[in-house]
Specification:
This protein has about 130 residues and is an alpha+beta fold. The chain folds into 2 domains: about 1-30; about 35-125, Roll (Nuclear Transport Factor 2, Chain: A). Helix content is about 55%, strand content about 20%. The protein contains 4 helices and 4 strands, in the order ααββαββα. The protein has helices spanning about 1-30, 35-60, 85-90, 120-125; strands at about 60-70, 75-80, 100-105, 110-115. It has a 4-stranded antiparallel beta sheet. It is rod-shaped. The protein starts with a helix and ends with a helix.
Amino acid sequence: MSRTLIAILVVTNLATGYQLYVTNHRYQATVSDKVTDRERDVYGTACVDWLNGKATERGFTLALGRSWKKHGQLIFEIIPASDKDWTIARDRMPNDDSPSMLCTYDKQSRMMYPVVGEERERWMFY
């Protein structure tokens, strides 16, 4: 009887420990400020493709820069693809001090938003 009870307690403790591990892992993933490689590939590339439509009309191409999470949303910095594109973008967008843009993706509503101007500071990683 006591061996059976000990075996049940050991199995119960193992199951509880595993469940706590899984729960903690999921929680850490939700509060993390890092973007996974898969999220960067899928959503970051979609942001670049979406914003490249307007950029090619203006004569330059864009590439994916830094990425992070803030306020539960994925944030991608979209930058000109080369030094030549950087110069063209700076000339064509004189109001901005930097030709880089931010793109936010909200996984819950599945919406992408470009971020420019004063809103940009709110979404920066710092």
